[in-house]
Amino acid sequence: MPPCEAHQQTIGLLACDRLTLNLVAKAESKGLVMALVLAGVGISFLPDGLVEDEAGLCTLPVSGPRMFRRIGLCYPAHQTLNPALRALIPELAGQGAS
């Protein structure tokens, strides 16, 4: 299966801000990615249309170049944010010190 073009673009956009991914799981569909996020496995960038009705997720719009569609950072609503995620949120929201 060829690499996902949106995944490759996301890696490139993060690299522009000197950020890297810590890949903890791979999934073959966006629905499975969302299930992994809901289970607390990690966080992800997912299309708004996929997550807009999912009460178990917190979403944060990401400022920056538009890709194929509008995406946002998704993380489980029921978990306490770890320090790395608390630091990442303002950066991705365009409120960081970059």
Automatic annotation (TrEMBL):
Gene3D superfamilies (UniProt xref): 3.40.190.290
Pfam family of the protein (one): LysR_substrate
Residue ranges annotated for the LysR substrate-binding domain, each copy included: 3-93
Protein name per the record: LysR substrate-binding domain-containing protein
